[in-house]
Amino acid sequence: MYKRLILLILTSVSSLAFAEMNIAILDKNAAMFQSEAARMETEKLKSEFGVDEQRILVIEQQVTEIRARLETDSAIMNQDDVDSQNLLASNLLNERQTLIDKLQQIQQQRQQIFIRKYQPVLAEVIQIVIEDHSIDMLLDAQSVIFSKEGTNITQDVLTAFNKRILSER
């Protein structure tokens, strides 16, 4: 009986303390990867490797044309021509895959460099926003199932992060 009463009192007190806490949520990935710094890095990647991206598009168009030609003309083509066109399409697809793999690897490397570079800055900005909003507890937005409007500080962090990054440039 006393154990239940003590448990009930503790639960009531802890829920009251919890209700008085200022709890917010933050999507750190959105704050980091929707930032001006991320946009600038993306533009830099596109300028460096845009030629490869264009080449991938050209290859895809060439393969589509070869396949269309084979579909319509294979009945009147000799076997050597059909084999030659299939080999060409296969070689182009291999080149395309090599370029895609290269670009994905470069993108992953640059993303890791970006995170290492800007994560400390983002952490500082988050701390400032937490203090400005008198937040007692900050939860990861990806772990939160429901939250009332106004408790998400992602936009505030993104704005402060952008301001900080642009002031350092």
Tell me about this structure.
With 169 residues, the chain is mainly alpha-helical. It has one domain. It is 78% helix and 5% strand. The protein has a two-stranded parallel sheet with strand order 1-2. Helix 3 packs antiparallel against helix 4 and helix 4 packs across helix 5. It is elongated.
Give average pLDDT, whole number. Answer: 89
Give the overall form.
Answer: elongated
Q: Summarize the helix and strand pattern as letters.
A: HEHHHEH
Helix content: over 70%
Instruction: Bin the strand percentage.
Output: under 5%
The biggest beta sheet is recorded as: 2 strands, parallel
Overall domain count:
1
Radius of gyration, CA atoms, in whole angstroms: 28 Å
- Ends: how far apart? 66 Å
Looking at this protein, list some descriptive labels.
mainly alpha, 2 strands, 78% helix
Topology diagram in text:
Elements: H1 2-20, E1 23-26, H2 28-33, H3 36-73, H4 79-132, E2 137-140, H5 154-168
Parallel strand pairs: 1-2
Helix pairs in contact: 3-4, 4-5
What's the quick description here?
This protein is mainly α and 169 residues long. It has five helices and two strands.
